[in-house]
Amino acid sequence: MRAPMQSDPLRALRRLRNRFGAEAARAKCALLGRLARTRLRGARELERLHELLCFMRAYPDDARLLAMVRRLLARFTHRSDLRAQREALENSGIAGTAIRFPFFWPSARWLARRWPGRIALDRLDHAAGRAIGKLLGVDHRLGGFAALDRIRPRGLSDAVQFIRLVEAMPGDDFAKEAFYDAIEPVIEIRPGRGTPDRTSAWHAAGPIAWQRTALDRTRPDLAAEIRRPPRRVRRVPAREGERLLDLARAAMATRCRDLDAFAYGDAHQVRLVDDGGALAFMLNGVVAERRLAHATPYGVLTLRNGVPVGYLDVAMARARAELAFNTFPTFRNGEAAHIFARVLAMAWTVLGARRFSVAPYQLGQHNHEAIGSGAWWFYFKFGFRPRDATARRLAQRERARVRRDPGYRSSEATLKRLAQWPLYLGPRRRR
Questions:
Q1: Which range marks the domain in which residue 377 is found?
Q2: Within 10 A of 208 (CB to CB), how many other CB atoms are there?
Q3: Domain annotation covers residue 174
Q4: CA 273, CA 183: separation in Å to the nearest integer?
Q5: How far apart are the C-alpha atoms of 384 and 425, rounded to whole Å?
Q6: pLDDT over threshold 60, residue 6
Q7: What Cα–Cα distance (Å) separates residue 230 from each residue in 283, 348, 417?
Q8: How many CA atoms lie within 13 A of 124 on its CB side?
Q9: Quick check: is 222 in a domain?
């Protein structure tokens, strides 16, 4: 397969995204060689190239392609077209671009510890400025940010100064968290050496596996998959656990998200689950003071050839696991069904889960992304079912319509109705 001789190498590369093998690899390398020398016109094109590179790092055809992808990602921040588009690419998570987000208390403290010189309060966040002014007891004409500037030491950022002020307040950490999150200040992460980005996100989770055939999009036999254990489960030392938690926290921060299970992760309770075929999971528990009375929370970061491709929030109550499964947008339209089946197998083997559930939010309740992706049908096709009688009747009606017309698609209004109720799966019961 020759590289398509088109004037637009980026479009040609996008067409090869899901084609694998020796010929596809040669074509991809030829196109990447052209793109390395091409100044792209706008932010959207740059982001598309970046996402393709991240995808190819997780799903490389061969060693030559992987080496080229790594080089291009390592040099991405030095591209002249990226420097010209930094402002337009804010919040993209691409190396060399800024992130602005109202991080929750534990994540704000983590940023202050790791990158004290690279974070700052967003001075356009006027509501936070007024709240900080009230905290400091200053005249509203002065403003909270100006008051912070008056008291912070030279060289200390306003964000770190404010976080330290909250840390020094009386009360326990729960009270400080509630106070900080009520103000909800927007923090800017200014790009610099080692700051969170998606471009360099990687962990040596195991040997590289080459993708030489098409991705498996079939729905696996769940009854068989769930009882097939991972290849290896390893409890990692605390130092490696901290690196893995940093990777997970950065994976969320660079996508303007926050997850308590990662934010309050305990580095002494981190396991690396090698599932084989380049698929691995980082599984972490949380610090003692953040464990729940009714359930045990866990965070899971999904890795493909060491690249974060998704995450999972798990709440274990006895033998039931409530799941919040997510694949990052870059890696969708791939092997989500296979990965989800392996997630259930990991929970079955490692956590002792025998029943599973999915909360309404994950199905689309107040969640437009889940509605758009058809999340309810994804779980339903795996055998998850509602227990509420009204929900069962509605599900049966939709299923009957699909049987009559395979091209039928549930309306957005119907999916929102279905998402009002949780779904359940008991793998021991045949469906």
A1: 354-431
A2: 12
A3: yes
A4: 38
A5: 5
A6: no
A7: 13, 10, 36
A8: 3
A9: yes
Q: How much is the pLDDT for 144?
A: 87
> Residue 1 above 70 pLDDT?
no
pLDDT in tens, 120-161: 999 999 999 999 988 888 766 678 899 899 999 999 999 999
| Final residue belonging to a domain, choices 134, 156, 189 | 189
As a residue count, the chain comes to 431
**Residue 288: count of CB within 10 angstroms of its CB:** 9
pTM of the model: 0.93
pLDDT tens for each residue of 213-264 = 999 888 999 989 999 999 999 999 999 999 999 999 999 999 999 999 999 9
- For residue 92 the two structure tokens come to 């993209």
pLDDT at 89: 98
Hey, what amino acid is at 74? A
HSE (side-chain half, CA atoms, 13 Å) at 283 = 24
Name every residue whose Cβ is closer than 8 Å to that of residue 362 and which is 6 or more positions away in sequence: 323, 324, 325, 370, 375
Q: At what angle do helices 238-253 and 105-114 cross, to 10 degrees?
A: 110
Our count of domains for the chain comes to: 4
Helix axes of 144-151 and 126-136: crossing angle, nearest 10 degrees: 50
For residue 375, being part of any structural domain is answered with yes
